[in-house]
Amino acid sequence: MNVRRQLGLPLLLLAALAATYLWVSSRQLDSMEARVLNADFIRDAALSHLLLTAVATTLVVLVSIPLGVLLTRPFARPLTPVVMAIANVGQAAPALGVMVLLSILYGIGTTIAIVTLVFSAALPVLRNTIVGIQQVDPALLEAGRGMGMSRGQILRRLELPMAVPIVMAGLRTTIVICVGLATVATFINAGGLGDIIVAGIKLQRTPILVTGGVLTAVIALGLDWLAGLAEKYVRPHGI
Amino acid sequence: MFKPLVLAAATLLTLTACGGGPEPASGTGGELEGATLVVGAKDFAEQNILANLTAELLRAHGADAEAKEIKGSANTRKALEAGEIQLYWEYTGTAWITYLGNDKPIPDPAQQYDAVAKADKDKNGVTWLPASGFNNTYALALASEKATQLGVTKLSDLTGVDKPTICVESEFANRNDGLPGLLSAYGLTVPKDDVKLLDTGVIYTETDKGQTCTFGEVFTTDGRIKALGLTVLQDDKKFFPVYQGAPTLKTETLTKYPQIAQILAPLGQKLTTEVMQGLNAQVDVDGEDAADVAKDWLEKEGLLK
């Protein structure tokens, strides 16, 4: 992988941000636009968006990977279809509906937004962990056992390292889903770039809408790019 | 040959109707025989009820009328101008600010109506029939027990409330005739953290619970105010624009069917903010069909006889 190819995307994203900035600042903003399009408002929205995404993604990793590993153990296999069904429902159910229902039951705020994100974005990591472990060549496991490895050693030294590329692919999907879905957090006072996007729609102000949309896209693509880099570093060498 | 005849007949009918004395306003008849009229509605319950009330009433007078839902204010207005719909109910404040491009509302409802009706007719050829008695404006509301406990009845009482928290949706949070203007008009300062941004539907339930926020942004004709038992604070400094509803139609349509004005007049007189709240609640809270609600109410009020 050459350096120029790795830097292409971040440069493109910076160019998109710069273009949006120049376009917005070249316009005469009316009082409603100025209330949203200022450094404080945008920083708060972007930071809370990143926070929502980061916490939700971390929780997905902490829940989905151990759960995925567990579900590939022989004793837990009967549970696999049940858990997968729940994760599928999570991905299929409209996040906004889930979030509003939860908030009517349990109150509003960041916690409920994060719960919704985890529920909606857990599937890719979970499914890829299971698939990643299942696709390991049985002959390899046989060889491990032949060398006298314990079950734990087989998991740590063979199954998990072999599954890493697939799990990471799932993680990238989860991150992008989280960035997109975090825009609905605005409806329950949980902040995020949805504050900007929804204000743009409701007030029919294109500069606000475009700013929110560009920022969301830049964050999604940027985080996906970072995760792509990480994928290369955590991928075990020599396998 | 045909057209002038119809016009002459229509004029004659109007003349007899005008001269006929007490009877015609509420009675039904065939005065609109042959007229095809589509009544537009924006995409919310109140508008659907209004469109159905209007269409039902026009049908009772012989017209071939139906209600048609359209997404959003701007699209509904465009549909009227393009002739896709022949009439719809509009709010004075919306027309004044959105279509006529003013940024300062007129506090007095009658003056606001007159200004809108005149400007819209002169500029756009849209005629406003006499305004109804309901005003679907913004307001702050709170749970009634809380209102008694805090002793607040009007917006200026907010100055005496310790650390008020307010639930709003993002449009209200940013509009000049929304929260920013409201706070400065009443000389209030509320820290950003005490203003909670929520979806409209969630605001009503959270305001009722009173934990996340004491006060919530509501629309004055919303059925949930009644259903949840919220107390609406009086806008004693008359800050909020007046959003009084009235049927609007192209002037040429009214010239063609002048009877429409008379047929719809009793509707406007009977529709007050409280009546509208009740009708909206039947649709929004009880889940009834807007067309059924409209028909039942017209029958109860004796407008279909």
Explain how this protein is built.
The complex is a heterodimer of chains A (239) and B (305). Chain A is built from 11 helices and no strands. By secondary structure, chain A is mainly α. Chain B is of the alpha/beta class and 305 residues long. Chain B has 2 domains: 4-135 and 242-300, D-Maltodextrin-Binding Protein, domain 2 (3-Layer(aba) Sandwich), CATH 3.40.190.10; 138-232, D-Maltodextrin-Binding Protein, domain 2 (3-Layer(aba) Sandwich). Helix content of chain B is 47%, strand content 15%. In chain B, the strands form 2 sheets. Chain B has a 5-stranded mixed sheet, with helices on both faces. In chain B, strands 7-6-8-5-9 form a 5-stranded mixed sheet. In chain B, helix 4 packs across helix 5. The longest helix of chain B has 18 residues, at 2-19. Chain A binds chain B through residues 31-32, 35-36, 100, 103-104, 107-109, 186-189, 191, 195, 198-199, 202-204, and chain B through 74, 167, 169-171, 173-176, 180, 196-199, 201-202, 205-206, 211-212.
Please specify the SSE layout and strand pairing.
The complex is a heterodimer of chains A (about 240) and B (about 300).
Chain A: H1 3-25, H2 31-36, H3 39-72, H4 80-92, H5 95-106, H6 110-121, H7 123-134, H8 138-146, H9 151-181, H10 194-203, H11 206-234
Helix pairs in contact in A: 1-11, 3-6, 3-7, 3-9, 5-6, 6-9, 7-9, 8-9, 9-11, 10-11
Chain B: H1 2-19, E1 36-41, H2 45-60, E2 64-69, H3 73-82, E3 87-91, H4 92-99, H5 109-124, E4 126-128, E5 138-143, H6 144-150, E6 166-168, H7 170-174, H8 179-185, E7 195-197, H9 200-209, E8 215-219, H10 223-228, E9 230-232, E10 245-250, H11 251-256, H12 259-270, H13 273-284, H14 290-300
Parallel strand pairs in B: 1-2, 1-3, 6-7, 6-8
Antiparallel strand pairs in B: 3-10, 4-10, 5-8, 5-9
Organism (chain B): Nonomuraea antimicrobica
Keywords (chain B): Signal
Pfam family, one (chain B): OpuAC
